[in-house]
Design goal:
This protein has 8 helices and 7 strands.
């Protein structure tokens, strides 16, 4: 690995770290010695990168630091391209267009030597049929962002229709379908709803009466508890 690339990798490692990270840990990830890490960190600090370090504790990258616009490796470009292709084939038209705009922006600012990686990609995604939905995914995503309830007629596994009011939390994209994770007022609990089973729906003016971060934390806790019950058996 060239030194310039290694310096950027060190910054990325510190950015990902949840707390102070030692020179030894950085060296292990990059395959270099602690002495090399010491020299590289000193060089970064000399270039104005706000890194704080303390012996026996580790290094911390101060928040708010931004690297130059784009320094992607070929693997990173292929990862982004694969993700964009997946969204274009599985996402609704609004997300597919956003994905196309994203790849165009990345191509425009990528270094010249990597620009052909966007044009002559080595990855692909097979096309699939879009689910038949009466409530579009873009509308669901907007309702989640605005913390609005959704009233709907929902068909269960047996084909019975029920009237529900839900607090949407997340929209999950599957291979050929989409699901909404939500709190259901009828069942007084967290449930998953397949979007193709929604017969009628309306986004209400009513706001979800709970902070979204707290609601998602409660949902994750409930799902973890359910997973443990399933693993432990009756």
């Amino acid at each position: 690995m060239r030194r310039g690339d290694r310096l950027f990798e060190i910054i990325e490692i510190m950015r990902r770290a949840k707390g102070p990270i030692s020179a030894e840990a950085i060296g292990e990830e990059l395959g270099v010695t602690k002495r090399t890490v010491y020299r590289d960190v000193a060089a970064l600090i000399g270039q104005g990168v706000p890194i704080n370090g303390e012996a026996g504790v580790g290094y911390v990258l101060e928040s708010g630091f931004h690297m130059p616009p784009l320094m992607l490796t070929p693997d990173e470009i292929e990862a982004v391209t694969l993700g964009v292709m997946w969204v274009q084939s599985r996402g609704e038209p609004e997300l597919a267009l956003a994905a196309e705009k994203l790849i165009t922006k990345l191509e425009a600012v990528a270094p010249d030597k990597y620009r052909t990686s966007f044009l002559e990609t080595v990855v692909s995604v097979a096309p699939v049929d879009q689910p038949d939905e009466v409530l579009g995914a873009a509308t669901i995503r907007l309702a989640i962002r605005q913390r609005r309830k959704i009233a709907m007629t929902y068909s269960d596994n047996a084909g019975r229709d029920t009237q529900r009011v839900i607090w949407p939390i997340l929209l999950g994209y599957r291979e050929t379908s989409r699901i909404i994770a939500a709190w259901c007022e009828l069942r007084e609990g967290f449930r998953y709803f397949r979007t193709e089973r929604i017969r009628e729906a309306e986004v209400l003016e009513d706001k979800i009466p709970k902070r979204m971060d707290l609601l998602r934390a409660a949902w994750r806790s409930a799902m973890d508890a359910e997973r443990r019950r399933f693993e432990n058996g009756p």
